[in-house]
Amino acid sequence: MSGSIDIRKANPFEKIVAQRVSDSKTQIPHFYVTAEADVSALLTLRSEINSGGAKESRLSVNDFIIAAVTRSMSEFPALNAVWQSGDIATFKDIDVGVVVSTSKGLYIPILKNIVGKDIHVISQMMSEMATLANAGKLTLDQMTGGAISISNVGMFGSVAMLPIINFGQSSVLGVGAPAGVFRPDKNDRPVLCNEIKLALACDHRIFDGVKATQLLARIVEILAAPEMLIQSS
Length: 233
Prior knowledge:
alpha+beta; Chloramphenicol Acetyltransferase; 34% helix; two-stranded antiparallel ribbon; 7-stranded mixed β-sheet; globular
């Protein structure tokens, strides 16, 4: 063996993450559905809101995605469920996990019972969770629960990803960065649109292809008409 190699012991957090992703990939039968969402109107609306508001009330693209996922899941209550030792456990409340990247690694805080909450409230909840994650102060309860999570790599420049389901849940939405593409309008003339690529990873014990496609299609539909998210999610 030529050359040199540095070996260090994985720290306890890294070992936990490694075990969870290994368990997820080996024990959960993953399948994926993908789509492209037109976020042109979303980006315009976000810019309008943020240009006139205080810094603490500004919205991110991820805030809209969280709200859209929450609203969509509320319309498909049978998918707000997880597989538990041969049984299907369906949650009454909709809790959504959001992957947060920190200097110590990835955390997935869970935003709990957010159906019907104003998008600014959701944004504030996410901000507080991200602060706790970066400080390493999330509790076990704050990282437990829910059937779905969101993993947005768009903020890091990636255009797409196929995520691994958070162990204990049944789906995760991978989100890429907005990209400009030309699409034909109703008169077949090219129009520049901003689109994001979405990939929904699903547990085949809870989802089938039709259910997964329907959920993802609804998320795409809501993201294309973001004004509905300003009233509530």
